[in-house]
Structure prediction request, 282 residues.
Amino acid sequence: MGYPMAGHLARAGHEVRVFNRSPGKGQRFAQEFGAVASASPGEAARDARFVFSCVGRDDDVREVALGPQGAFAAMAPGAVFIDHTTTSAVLARELDTAARALGISFIDAPVSGGQAGAERGQLTVLCGGEEPAVESARPLLSAFAKAVTHIGPSGSGQLAKMVNQLCIAGVLQGLAEGIHLGQAAGLDMRRVLPALAQGAAQSWQMENRGGTMIEDRFDFGFAVRWMRKDLGICLAQARACGATLPMTALVDQFYAELEAMGGTQWDTSSLVRRLRRRPGPA
Prediction:
């Protein structure tokens, strides 16, 4: 997702330097957008007013920010580091503390909208951090976002993203079971879902994933392995603050079954495939 997001910044006229752990991707971006491909996060971040990261997991962000060639050490006082990775709130607060010690600002800014939203510049950005830093970054964030919301202090963006993922998981499981029941009962779900989308059952998932769920197509979208990573973060946060998430724990088990079926890279809407492959009553 970082590739199209950075592309929107370049198209908006900003000077962009990029680093990618796969050097070929960085070179390809530089050629496409007239940018500079850097050899390390620190080289890309040096003298930059704003630094953006979008990687995979907590340890990846920590390496990009604090590693031997990390961005933090190369950033000038007053610069702002914006992390779009979905991580734990614990990491966000850790990096906020490290940034303050260096005289720079850190914003945890996970996004919602998927690859398609990144390509269209229609992401939703959930920001945690100091308000002045968020406001200074807002014009740049708006290059690839339809909505930028300052949720609260450091870690708040990541906590809000956890809520987002829980809501998606629950909707997808309900949609999967609805489609499965309808098909098992002989309904033409291509007629049913458009009708339901006009009423209280309407959701983004129904309108954007319902058709492909009916067709059993899942070779696109947000991969099961990344949703399992996100749900793991949610469950860890729930244990830390005493929240109870029974539905989340159950859907996480269902995604584990999909991984065992070979579905690590399937879209998260593949929950319906698990239902179809379960044996019926004897």
In short: The radius of gyration is 20 Å. Residues 218 and 267 are 5 Å apart (CA to CA).
